[in-house]
Design goal:
Length: 285
């Protein structure tokens, strides 16, 4: 076992684009030794290019959060090479847009697999190393959709709510073991992740299209306006992650803008939930 240098060792999932890419580069600039993982390292070109432009290097390795063997192998290799993991950033995720009736069971399972079980799998592999060291930080990128349900995001929000509940439960236990648990909750972020979310289904049944089509169109139009008006960049989100990763006493939760903090606060001041339903429903006709 060998520890390379004195830098903190950061493991990040989902670094081929967007928030993960920017986080990898910014943490390297902040002095971390960065292990940037992705399901297909063949897609590391954009990350390597941005890292080179920034004058930093990152160690790109394969890690598929949906595969037990892949996660175990990656963590074991990192432990053997670097001797420890000081910071874990769970960023890999997958979205899906569709109501309850428009979400096939297979899609629901994969959305939960990537966004919840994938995070669980990686944390469960890394946690023993941090427990043995008596230190570490586990930072998970969730979403405002992990606290406030969003129309047509039933599966995605279910997964993010699950992560939020689990991490909130884990936090006090981890704290007593010297490990900080951190949740990062962005709102609208202009990245490739959004483009990858399926907005419609070509094989959608006519009755479902009739029932939900106008609501979905209205929701999408309002959402696009929100992204245009107040959408943040992956670079901005990366900056908040670096702040949470390096501050002396991190909080459990970080919202990434004043707007998101105001939206989330609504949930805490109205225990009935009525104002939240009114707020999110305002995007529907």
């Amino acid at each position: 076992m060998s520890i390379i240098g004195s830098e903190k060792i950061a493991l990040i999932t989902g670094t081929s684009s967007g928030i993960g890419l920017q986080t990898a580069v910014q943490l390297a600039q902040a002095g971390f030794t960065v292990i940037a993982t992705m399901r297909d390292p063949g897609k590391a070109g954009p990350l390597q290019e941005v890292a080179q432009q920034a004058g930093v290097t990152v160690d790109v390795r394969p890690l598929d959060v949906e595969d037990d063997a892949s996660v175990a192998a990656a963590v074991a290799d990192i432990q053997a090479r670097y001797g420890r993991i000081d910071l874990l950033v769970n960023n890999a995720g997958a979205g899906y847009l569709g109501s309850l009736e428009q979400t096939p069971p297979a899609v629901l399972r994969r959305t939960m697999e990537v966004n919840f079980f994938g995070v669980w799998r990686v944390v469960q592999a890394v946690f023993p190393l941090m427990r043995a060291a008596g230190s570490g930080r586990i930072l998970t990128v969730t979403s405002v959709g992990g606290l406030i349900g969003q129309p047509f995001n039933d599966a995605y929000c279910a997964a993010k709510f699950a992560v939020e509940g689990w991490m909130e439960s884990l936090a006090p236990v981890a704290q007593r073991l010297g490990i900080a648990v951190i949740l990062l909750e962005p709102g609208a972020v202009n990245s490739g992740f959004v483009a990858a979310v399926q907005a419609t289904r070509a094989d959608e049944a006519p009755d479902l299209r009739a029932a939900y089509g106008s609501m979905r169109d209205s929701y999408m139009a309002a959402t696009e306006q929100t992204y245009t008006a107040v959408g943040q960049t992956p670079t901005e989100i990366g900056q908040v992650i670096v702040e949470a990763a390096t501050t002396a006493t991190p909080h459990l939760r970080y919202q990434t803008s004043d707007l998101i903090r105001a939206v989330v606060a609504r949930k805490y001041v109205d225990p009935t939930g009525d104002s939240v339903v009114a707020l999110t429903g305002a995007r529907l006709p």
